[in-house]
Structures are given as structure tokens and as C-alpha cells.
Amino acid sequence: RGTLVHSVLEKVWSRLGSHEELVKAQPSWLSELVSSCVNQALREIARWYPQTLTPRLRQLEAERLQRRIMEWLEIEKQRTPFVVIENEGRHTVTAGGVRVTVKIDRIDKLQDDRLVVIDYKTGSVTPSQWFGERPDEPQLPLYSMAIDDDIAGVVFAQIKAGDMGFKGVLEDTGIVPGVKSYEALKLNITFNSWQDVLNHWRDTITALGNEFRHGNAEVKPKPNACKWCELQSLCRIYEISAQQDE
After folding, report:
1. In the chain, where do the E strands start and end?
2. What gap in Å lies between CA 234 and CA 196, rounded to an integer?
3. CA 223 → CA 114, 220, 228, distances in Å?
4. Under 8 Å between Cβ of 167 and 127
5. Distance CA 227, CA 147 (A)
């Protein structure tokens, strides 16, 4: 379902192109546009899942997506003016000697030419997980390294039923509704400027890349890492924990 939401929004913004066009669009025309994009996205993915996406299920999914996307666009209308300059763009980042290819869902340009990097999410996100020596969610900090121009913020577009909104970190409050500036966030790290935030992310990701490139395999997982690990039978973390208890 997350893939479908991404696909529909990519198609919608490819047609709209800017905040101005969104705001001035007639409700009936906008609804038809979203419906067209929803049906196109469903046709594309139905080829791969013909047994799952039966005609009846496609109808139900189309109705769900229509409601969800229209609700999300109302939130986008509340933003300050912007132009969508990139959808699903691929970038290459080098972190500590490790080359990583990333696909950024969307990049918006503000009126002052600063950029906002946006990634679509259908689940819950917490920007505080982007900080520290070993961030839990380094995805958007990594994206910030892929952009050479002036970045005003990196945000998740959380398109989750009952909890829709932007979540992220901005240079200034007010750029995106509901998202605070880095100065207003409650973090364990103090930053003197927005550039310090970007430098912190770059230094952190670079250090992680260096560790990976040099084969650092220290058994020191983050608290939640073991929940998702498929190699627990080979891991020594429980052995080390037992030794520490003794």
C-alpha cells in the first residue's frame, strides 16, 4: 500500500507541479485528477499481483486511495508557496568511501530558492531518531548529503490514516505546517546553526560508512535492532550479555 501511495502522489505532482496550481485547482477537477492517477497506479501494479488485486479489491483500494490522497492534498495547501522540481530522483552519495544510490521521493523549491527534501511514509516516524552517533533512522540525513544546493529542511510526509502530517527538521519554523525548526526540537545535542545540523549528519553518516568499509563487526546492536534481525542464531549478543551479568 505504501508503494501505491508513492506512485499516486508522484503522478499527481507531475501533473500539478506547484503549490499555486494546487491551490487554484477546482475541487471537481482535482478529484478527477487524483482518480485518474489512482486508477493508473492500480493498473500498473495489478499486472504483478493479478490474483490479489481482483476487480472488487481494486475498486475498494481505489476508493481508499482517493480519500487518502485528497485528505493529504488539503494539508499541502496549507504550505507556503513551492514548486516541485524533482519526483523519484536518483542520487549518488559517498559516505566514508561507500557509494550509495538513493531515490528521493520529492524535492520542492521554495520562493527563496531553498530546497525541502520530502520522503513519503505511510507509517509513524520520529525525527529525534535521526540524531546521535548511531541514528536509528539515517535515511533523511543521508538524503541531505545528496543535495548540493541550499537545503531548508528534510521532512517525512506521514500519510497515515488518523495521523497525517509532516514530520521532520527545518531551518526555520513555518516552512512546512506542523514542523518545528531545529532550534525548537528537544534534542540531546545543541546546535548553533542549521549548518551545524547538516554537518552533524554528514559526520555521523561518514563515520558509519568508514566503520562498514573497514569491516567493523563489533557486537553492539541498537536496543531495537534484535527485533528485526534474521541472524539471531549466529549472533553473540546473548553470550556477551550473559558474561556481563556474571
Report:
1. 82-95, 98-110, 115-121, 151-158, 165-170
2. 39
3. 36, 9, 11
4. yes
5. 33
93 close to 86: Cβ distance less than 8 angstroms: no
User: Residues 88-104: pLDDT tens digits?
Assistant: 999 999 988 889 999 99
Long-range Cβ contacts of 109-113 (<8 Å, 24+ apart): 109/82, 109/83, 109/85, 110/80, 110/81, 110/82, 110/152, 110/175, 111/80, 111/81, 111/82, 112/152, 113/149, 113/150
Q: Render pLDDT for 118-133 as a digit per residue (tens, 0 to 9).
A: 999 888 878 878 888 8
Q: Which of 227, 206, 212 is nearest to 133 (CA)?
A: 206
Q: Is the dihedral of CA 180, 66, 74, 17 positive or negative?
A: positive
If pLDDT is split at 50, 70 and 90, which confidence band does 9 have? Answer: very high
Q: Identify the CA nearest to 168 among candidates 115, 112, 202, 128.
A: 128
